[in-house]
Amino acid sequence: MLNNAKVRVSTLVVLAAALVLALFITMNPMGSVGASPTDQAPVDLGTAANFAVLGGAGVTCTESAVTGVVGSLLTVTQTPTCTIEGTIHQGDAVATQAFADFLVAYAALAARPCAPANNLTGQELGGMTLAPGVYCFNTTAALTTGQLTLNGPSDGVWIFQIGTGITTGTASVVMAGGGQPSNVFWQAGTAATIGDSTAFQGNILGNYPLTV
Question: pTM for this structure?
Fold first, then answer.
């Protein structure tokens, strides 16, 4: 998970296996669609919100620079091309509690109802402007090119329920109208691949180990 931290990603590849939370808050024409912000209550991440990266099976940092707390139920592995500026928690009580809080948040996100009109399966997210609400994909979500604009007030909540994985390319996620990256949640069933040319924002919660 990445929360109010900076992660400079060469390539982020997340593959299937155990639950992990990655929050990407990168401070870096269609009509707006979606539910009103009052339809979605805030999502409480508990102590998991204190982590930049939090893994269940393990975290491997390869060609990234992470500023913030990094944790895993098992191990955190760094290669020579990775830098972590923050405390590392490996299998201790802090990481265990944070991961328990993450599991609660993951289940809560999965339980949010998605209206049929907000099922975006097969549609490219680049070029869309979305209001706060719940959006769902039966399989994969694609943000390969262009700009996804999330337009709403500061208390607006965006939830993306993704059946399998999300892949990004030369694309960006932009907040508008006062919307906050901390209120954007990407719930992925299997894998997430965040390209090195992507300006990504929001919290990635998924069922996979993490490589950054």
Answer: 0.78
